[in-house]
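lol so apparently i was supposed to do this last week
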Amino acid sequence: MAHKILALAGSPRRNGNSETLLDRALTGALQADPAVEVRKMVLNELKFVPCQNCGFCTGKGVCRYAASDDMGPIYEAIESCDRFIIASPIYFACVSAQLKGMVDRCQALWARKYLLKRRHPNADRRALFLSCGGFKHDRYFKCAAEVVSAWCAVCDVKLGGELFFPSIDGRGEIESHPTALADALAAGRELMK
Ligand SMILES: Cc1cc2nc3c(=O)[nH]c(=O)nc-3n(C[C@H](O)[C@H](O)[C@H](O)COP(=O)(O)O)c2cc1C
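anyway here it is w/ flavin mononucleotide bound
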């Protein structure tokens, strides 16, 4: 069966640095496996409420708001895809609010896995995380990596690769990085192996 990739763009800046990395990784994935089906979601263009900690999902493993906001299609894509590419800029030493909001809404999947003991049937699901930040220190990626790693664990997805690019700030700066685009292309290819 053809692989399915869910590509999540976490930046509010369209075609910015992290989305450029995402698109380059998708190109690599398509080079490695032309039959792959790609679903790209720009989180800033979707409307969903932050997790309300209402407790509804603890009994059912389903979010109360799944049918009434744009998380519904995201849950469906998380369920049906087997490859994930997540891209986010660093905002205040973490992922963007757009990505964090989506991650928090996956508390329903946490309940499904840890309370209801339901695991995803596909044991070969893998993810790649791509990020960039304006500061030169790479410590700002630590918290972001933890968030994505926790999300992967909840979704029964193995975090198979991470690429972090510090000192990337202005729109398009990633294009002048000596290796970033080639690195993302190679990582996208690798994801399909
Ligand atoms: C609200 C906000 C917070 C930011 N916080 C950080 C930060 O803590 N560390 C960092 O390295 N860069 C930070 N940046 C810079 C962005 O990560 C940087 O501009 C990045 O290249 C944007 O990627 P994008 O084009 O994909 O949106 C911040 C930018 C904004 C707008």
